[in-house]
């Protein structure tokens, strides 16, 4: 009887097995990478209504971040500056620049009592509704000697070099967890909160490790998860699921 | 067609008088009855598969249409569930688990008989398994598919089911490996994988038989692809036997482990009525019990309609019924022991739960379970009943019903009276009955397709337990087969 299948079909079981393993691995990787915030969110740079240059203001002129984002130490959000904040300077400086058209419009409408609308800035850093995040808890924790902060640049990158701001961190859950498991390398003295390009010295490295251990004892994430499972709600961010998913 | 000697023989070997002995000294009846030789067994088994598509008998067409309608309804139901969410069920506090889990445990339990037959009876050299293992294994696989769909659908957000697997992800999260629900994912997946491999390995030589007998191209291609180049050489057989044995050894522990882990879903929790150390053996016994009942439910009509009475004899039915009697008694013992422990422990909550099972709002479910699972199998003490296909079929249906209710009783009655009296409730299903019917539709669609296109009896294995396989066979047994071997009329058409 003639052969039903050509000879190469002898290889199909092997090819099938290899194909399944390789294909499955590739599919997993594809979802892992191309579906992740590392790929989808990092680098997000929307066009802003006013061509505001962070490089000029925060970099060349060395303005403190908190001049505009004034609530960062007191509230959950850093705060987007109101038109008034812009006008503090721009009523005097470059007051007729065409780039500031929208700022002046917002300001004059407000002054004339016609409207109370800010410049429609486009939000870049977004955390989902089901994840609780508070800036004030991150830019200064601990008391006295043990006080430390996560610097602005740690999450937002070198703002002082960006003409237009873009997202540099994925803001993914794993990214949060990674730091919460080992915060020491990302801590700095509160006084250096807004410094750009800051590097820790050996003393600080040692001290940061000590502070991190105090704030976040080893293994505390899993212990905290257990406390959450036992129904003890804790609001500290390392307190398992309910720390952020309240 | 149906006039072949083999088919009209009466079931009782004592009346028939032409008993072929498997072993003239031991005096046991041969496992294959009637004037069969190797060729006639092949003819008998292949007849169903080799009928041209257009000549499919009408009852079969009707059956598969009905089953496929059920499966299609299930598809629609899944869409509805996907769209609306589990709110279409009666599940609510405090009954958070109901028919979804009941159906899951019901189906995964049924699978266990197939694995017991194919693996444990094989390792113990129980030759009678050969004529029932193929469709018992098929039953296992299709039941596990149904169980898997129940448990995958009960999660609520079905599109998040991939969370069940440890896939690297941007949340830095892994499944909770300390949870029995996660162990369940692995148990059921392992079970499905190993059972499928085992089933397929056994099918390869039979696929080759069908390929070699094929008269039309598509059948030659179809069975040729499935036979994977099997030529039946001695080397093939040596490898095959080794592989089969290894897979049997893999499967044997699964008979015990899978349902043990399913029972952990309940036993590891702290709910009175669930938190019981007897659960693993009790669940395994119940699984084998329900599975063998389902084997009977499927086998008896198949044996009748496909004319397989010579291969699946009364001896097989009796053996199965003996296992049903044994495991049914074990299940009854477990029911009694649960009550004993509840009383003996002096724990008020445990005591309340069990009294509530018997006499609470769900008393009807409890007593359905007890009558079907404890009382009816005891009828198999009577030889007349356990060797009667009609009785066996009816009782197997009872056991199926009873075992479904067992899972209902365990799941729902333990939950509906929780520790907070104000949250007590009475669970009533809403659309769940379509869920259950849908899984039956899926199951029977797969099963009927299997019966139509795959050899339902492991031909090569059955031949190995026939007297002809004995090298000294020619020396004795000048019964009907010795003279009639060459011209026996195979019962190709059966009783259609």
What does this structure look like?
The complex is a heterodimer of chains A (246) and B (496). Chain A is mostly helical and 246 residues long. Among the domains of chain A are: 54-111, no CATH class; 144-244, no CATH class. Helices cover 40% and strands 2% of the residues of chain A. Chain A has helices at 12-34, 37-40, 54-60, 65-68, 83-90, 101-111, 152-156, 173-181, 202-215, 220-229, 241-244; strands at residues 149-150, 187-188. In chain A, strands 1-2 form a two-stranded antiparallel sheet. In chain A, helix 5 (83-90) packs across helix 6 (101-111). The mean pLDDT of chain A is 87. By secondary structure, chain B is mainly alpha-helical. Chain B has a single domain (58-452), classed as Formate dehydrogenase/DMSO reductase domain (Formate dehydrogenase/DMSO reductase fold, Up-down Bundle). Chain B contains 18 helices and 2 strands. Chain B has a two-stranded antiparallel sheet. In chain B, helix 7 (180-213) runs antiparallel to helix 9. Chain B starts with a helix and ends in a 12-residue tail after the last helix. The model of chain B is unreliable at 1-10, 13-18 and 475-496 (pLDDT under 50). Classes of the chains: A mainly alpha (246), B mainly alpha (496). The A-B interface holds A 1, 4-5, 9-10, 13, 28, 31-32, 35-38, 170, 172-175, 177-178 and B 167-173, 211-212, 220-221, 224-225, 228-229.
